[in-house]
Amino acid sequence: MPVDTLSLAGKTAIITGSGRENGIGAAIATAFARNGASVAIHYVSEGSKGKAEKVAAGLTKDFGVKTTVVQGSVDNYSTAKRIVEETLKAFGIAHIDILVNNGIVTNPVQSLTEVAQKDLEKEFSVNVFGTIYMTQAVVGAGAMPIGGRIINIGSIVSKLNSPPFIYSAAKAAQDSLTAAWASELGRSHGITVNTLAPGPMPTDSSKPFLQNPDGSPSGLAQAVIQQGRAANRLGTVQDMADAALLLVSEKSRWITAQWISVSGGVTGTS
């Protein structure tokens, strides 16, 4: 009997928001590519194009897999559909096997009376509507097959009732979609849908909040570490990538509709 593996050979994945080398999306893309998947690296702004191309080129060089780079804001269905269609064309394939909804927008913490309409609309349009549009596109235009995998990247703040409150509410809405789609897509298409919810972990965008100028943990980081139940450290993007790899493998075929915290056990309760 052969040794069990988490091979993704022959699979194709789209990971939104994966164009930053030190981000969660790029780490997940790396884990998938390392295990044989063809990967579409996604970015939004023109200024991020070079970084996304560097991520894609590195995956091809290191693991010998096919990669492509796709651009566009996912808060528009036409753009989401184009992203999927460009991926199919680039790889010469008929379907998408894996979608990771990792594109996010979060604004500075604002009180109810301070938050502006444009900020509200942007957070929900990307975090909620973008998740909907990309999922519609991979299931429809992407013809996601039986055994397809969808992962929504959430956040532990959706369960902790903590700032930033608008982002927390948007992620809670996304959590609800995970549960609803798992039933709908599981029964009709044989697709699993799960949420991976990270706690605070250092990335290019979060380091200023989690590390002091001398590299030591900030007050926020220390508070998170104290709430954890695992090793005495913050989580890393590799922790997220490994969890994602497990969820998209054949070994997780019976895991769906789950909200899985990747935080070292931070629950908000003692």
Automatic annotation (TrEMBL):
Keyword Nucleotide-binding belongs to the record: no
Keywords: NADP
Domain of life: Eukaryota
Pfam families hit by this protein: adh_short_C2
Gene3D superfamilies associated with the record: NAD(P)-binding Rossmann-like Domain
GO molecular function: oxidoreductase activity, acting on the CH-OH group of donors, NAD or NADP as acceptor; quinone binding
Alphabetized InterPro entries for the sequence: NAD(P)-bd_dom_sf, SDR_fam
GO biological process: abscisic acid biosynthetic process; fatty acid biosynthetic process
Family to which this protein belongs: Belongs to the short-chain dehydrogenases/reductases (SDR) family.
UniProt cross-references to PANTHER family, sorted A to Z: CHAIN OXIDOREDUCTASE_DEHYDROGENASE, PUTATIVE-RELATED, SHORT-CHAIN DEHYDROGENASES/REDUCTASES FAMILY MEMBER
Name used for this protein in its record: Putative oxidoreductase
